[in-house]
Structures are given as structure tokens and as C-alpha cells.
Write a structure and sequence with these properties.
The chain is α+β, with helices and mostly antiparallel strands and 80 residues long. The chain has one domain (3-74): Glutaredoxin, CATH 3.40.30. It is built from three helices and four strands. The radius of gyration is 12 Å and the shape is globular.
């Protein structure tokens, strides 16, 4: 399972997503869109959003720290 978090270092909701996934023992790739313009453009293309966090779980894009949607995407992959 591939999990990516498009984030910025100063985003409190991004930190909450990271802590939440760590509690669930879910490995993820942290992508700092403030430092990586290519990644920022990729995030906007995938989500249509400029705000963070944007979470991608095996191709499913979730905008914001939406626990219910994260749980659903993880459970479809058999990881919750």
C-alpha cells in the first residue's frame, strides 16, 4: 500500500494526520510541497486543491484530515 501526505512544515492538520497514521502503524511518504514545487503541482493536479494536507492512499485522494475517509481507504486495503 502506498500512502503519501502532501504537507507543509507549519500545517497543524498535517501533523495530526502524521500522528494518526503513526498510531495505526501505517507507513507513509511525507512530501513537503513548500519546498518541492514539482510535488506541489502534482498535488494540485491530483486533488484540484492548493491547501494541505492532501492524503493519497493507493490512488484515492483525500483532502484535509478526514478520519472517516482515511479509515475507509485504509480498511479497503486491509490495514485497519
Amino acid at each position: 500500500m502506498a500512502v503519501k501526505i502532501y504537507s507543509t512544515p507549519t500545517c497543524p492538520y498535517c501533523k495530526m494526520v502524521q500522528e494518526y497514521l503513526k498510531e495505526k502503524d501505517v507507513e507513509f511518504e511525507y512530501i513537503d510541497v513548500a519546498a518541492d514545487k514539482k510535488a506541489a503541482n502534482e498535488m494540485i493536479e491530483k486533488s484540484g486543491q492548493m491547501g494541505v494536507p492532501v492524503i493519497e492512499i493507493d490512488g484515492k485522494v483525500i483532502v484535509g484530515f478526514n478520519k472517516e475517509e482515511i479509515e475507509k481507504a485504509l480498511s479497503q486495503q486491509g490495514n485497519v
